[in-house]
Amino acid sequence: MLMETGEPDRGRKPWRDRLVGHRAVGALLAGAAGVTVMGAVLVLLPSAVVDHDLAGASVAAQDRLKAVNDVRTALLQAVGGMVVLFGAYATWRQLRVSQDGLRATQEGYVTDRFSTAVDQLGSDKLQTRIGGLHALWRIAEHSARDREAVISIQAAYLRTHLPWPPAGPQAPAMDVPINDVVPLEVRAADAQVALTGLGVLLLQPREQSWVNLSVTDLRRADCDGLWLHEVNLDRSCMEAAGLYHANLTQASLVSVNLRHADLKTAILRRARCVLADMRGARLVEADLRDADFTESDLREANLRKADAGGAVFRRADLRLADLRGSDLSTADLAQATSDRCAGQ
């Protein structure tokens, strides 16, 4: 009948109240029993221990009482130590539970921020996309487990928004003179933010190695001081890009366009620059050790004081290149064209 009235809880409440009451009474009885047992142990056990140790020997009552009190004190200290240890363990367990809860909350917060930032990248508003990129950057700096995902997203963002050859009505045509191309930070501020964030995040330890930025339009991009270690830039156009003191160690630059790029003091150690177009590039004091410039076009490039120890220039075109002060003592210049190199 109670179910038919639509108020099932009214019949269950007394039963629940009785259950709670029974549990409370049980807890009190268990506590009282524990106290009684502990009292009996502290009263009876010391005497039994002393009698056992005396083995029927006759001693003065005062000495026996002192021995019993000593045993009782030792028992109390042992019980107190156990209570302290149990309290410490309970506190540790509570701390672990709290930490796990906090970690779960933080991970949920990071996941929400990550999802929101990724959604912002698809916005039609430039400011919203830039905000999403900055949010991803911050997430990667504070969450090591999300860093690889953020790096991959930023690289994909650059490849899709700046393809080479250029696509879209707003992108400068590939045959436009480089002086007429607006710097990347002006014509595509969101792409410049993604590129800068990528070059900063790659400074930190990573589980994966290569980052794919191949066939990307990076004309007049600002890469000064960025860490582009082990980045694949094959067939990209980086004409007149700023790469001052950039780290391109072991980067892949096959068939890349670096005409008139500023690579002063840049690091290209073990970089693969095969078939690269580096006409007029500025490589003053650059670290080119063990780099491969096979069949690259370095006409009119400025390599003054560059360290090219162990570099490979096979069949490279070095005509009119400024090689004054550069270290080519251990470089491989087999079949290189350098009959008119400046400073020779």
Task: Kindly describe this structure.
- The chain has 344 residues and is mainly alpha-helical.
- Helices cover 46% and strands 1% of the residues.
- It is built from six helices and two strands, in the order H-H-H-H-H-H-E-E.
- It has helices spanning 9-54, 61-120, 126-142, 144-161, 184-187, 189-201, and strands spanning 211-212, 231-232.
- The protein has a two-stranded parallel ribbon.
- Helix 4 (144-161) packs antiparallel against helix 6 (189-201).
- The longest helix is centred in the N-terminal third of the chain and has 60 residues, at 61-120.
> Total strand count, please?
2
Oligomer: single chain
Shape: elongated
Strand composition percent: under 5%
Strand order of the largest sheet: 1-2
Q: H/E series, N to C?
A: HHHHHHEE
- Report the end-to-end length measured between terminal Cα atoms: 109 Å
**Which residues sit in consecutive blocks of at least 5 with pLDDT less than 50?**
1-9, 340-344
Number of helices: 6
Please identify the structural class as seen in this structure.
mainly alpha
Q: Radius of gyration from the CA trace?
A: 38 Å
Query: How confident is the prediction overall: mean pLDDT?
Result: 86
Major sheet characteristics: 2 strands, parallel
Portion of residues within helices? 40-55%
